[in-house]
Automatic annotation (TrEMBL):
It comes from Kribbella amoyensis. Keywords: ATP-binding, Kinase, Membrane, Nucleotide-binding, Phosphoprotein, Transferase, Transmembrane, Transmembrane helix, Two-component regulatory system. It comes from the Bacteria. The chain crosses the membrane at residues 12-29, 41-59, 71-88, 119-136, 142-165. SUPFAM superfamilies: ATPase domain of HSP90 chaperone/DNA topoisomerase II/histidine kinase. This is histidine kinase. GO terms for cellular component: membrane. InterPro entries: HATPase_C_sf, Sensor_HK_TwoCompSys, Sig_transdc_His_kin_sub3_dim/P. It catalyses: ATP + protein L-histidine = ADP + protein N-phospho-L-histidine. One of its GO terms (molecular function) is phosphorelay sensor kinase activity. Residues 183-247 form the Signal transduction histidine kinase subgroup 3 dimerisation and phosphoacceptor domain.
Amino acid sequence: MIRRANRPVRRGLLIVEVMLLGGLNLEQAVRKLILQGPPPVGELLYFAAAVVIAVLALLRRRYPERITELAAGAIAVSLACSAVGFLAKPAADFSGDSETLALLLLVGAACHRLPPAQAGAVALVGGVTIASAPILRYGNDSAALTVAVLWAMVWGATVAVGLILRDGNARREAALTAARNRERLALARELHDLVAHHITGVVVRTQAAQVVLADGPEQETLQDIERAGAEALAAVRRLVMMLRSPEQELPVTTGSLLETVEAAVAGDDAVTLRLAPGLAELAVAPETVSTVHRVVLESLTNVRRHAPDARRVTVTVEHAVEGGRQCLLVEVLNDGLRPGRTRRSAGGYGLIGMGERIDALDGRLTAGEHGERGWRVLAELPLPGGVVATRRREEGTAQ
């Protein structure tokens, strides 16, 4: 799946959140710190807590993988203020709109993004924190109880919105998975019925020619053709096996990844190649190696075609572990995007072909603007074996 690096919607939502949270805190600061003179200590404490929680809520967009920690920190700050309000009863006028809004944003994000257990814990503790804050800080009079009920209702609506977004994501992922499975099986049938059939015919005819021309000078050439055909047929069968059973571990190979990448950029002095340490020992399936070769070649071709004025072109290949899943990252970055001009993807099928090959491996392709003048192609390819599997095999052999 090709994902564009375009974020106008997210930036718009971030701007709205900054305006809401910043506006509420600014209104509190002007009204209580300036217009009404020196405020009580309790109001200063609650205002400082609101600012801290608002910052934590905004940081969730910058660090979406740390929503749990950000929500826990915001809830801890709010509960600490409520505990001080309950024990010390500091003088303070009723407030807390920006703090509550920030907590609601974190609760909604948790229900949307986090695993069920973490999302449930954050939602439950966040709801108790939001609903109990008015009563603990300002007493149990009718005004505080009314506000507590109102905030509890808004909390329920926030949880519902987060769960709706979560369900939408799950439905979309299920639809994409089903579509990928259909495409994978259709491609496997085409490879098995057409490509493998024709390659088998070539190998059989070559073997027959060797029998007929047993003593001829063409014998060595025919043997090379037979060997190349057999290797191609084995590669097609491996690919068919992968497409039909993607969960099955593939045969892996070592030592060819570096040569493949270096061959793809050979002869181009304008390209800077960055290879992470340890790639030579990395176990990579043959289909992944060929996909890396295609990604690098096609990306460099697009640079020469669409960004001839690029001064820096960098190809980076590295191994990463994300969420316990090993993957190979292939990045091609150039600075040939002119200021004020949005580059469109290639008019041909190069980018589409890359995306289809990477989809077949359950990988991800991101292509789009990067920085002020940059254009980046980033391929994330899962590794069925990886370094850990290779080391285990080596240890088993040694034993």
